[in-house]
UniProtKB/TrEMBL annotation:
GO BP field: translation
Family note: Belongs to the universal ribosomal protein uL29 family.
Native source organism of the sequence: Brevundimonas alba
One GO CC term on file: cytosolic large ribosomal subunit
Highest taxon, organism lineage: Bacteria
Full protein name: Large ribosomal subunit protein uL29
GO molecular function, one term: structural constituent of ribosome
InterPro entries on file: Ribosomal_protein_uL29, Ribosomal_uL29, Ribosomal_uL29_CS, Ribosomal_uL29_sf
Pfam families per record: Ribosomal_L29
Keyword set, alphabetical order: Ribonucleoprotein, Ribosomal protein
Length: 65
């Protein structure tokens, strides 16, 4: 789980890269769940919440500046 203070310290480009990485991980986790190979079920909700945090920060940065 990513802390919001760490995310606020990053540039928008870094946040976009992190968002892309998390979306790929989310896809892979969904694929694992569908095939019954998922081991860390809690990771799905963590990734989803991290994606929401980053999306919110990116949206706020665009609105502010």
């Amino acid at each position: 789980m990513t802390k919001i203070a760490d995310l606020r310290a990053q540039t928008p480009d870094q946040l976009s890269d992190e968002l892309l990485k998390l979306k790929k991980e989310q896809f892979n986790l969904r694929f694992q769940a569908a095939t019954g190979q998922m081991e860390k079920t809690h990771r799905v909700s963590e990734v989803r919440k991290d994606i929401a945090r980053i999306s919110t920060l990116l949206r706020a940065n665009r609105a502010a500046g």
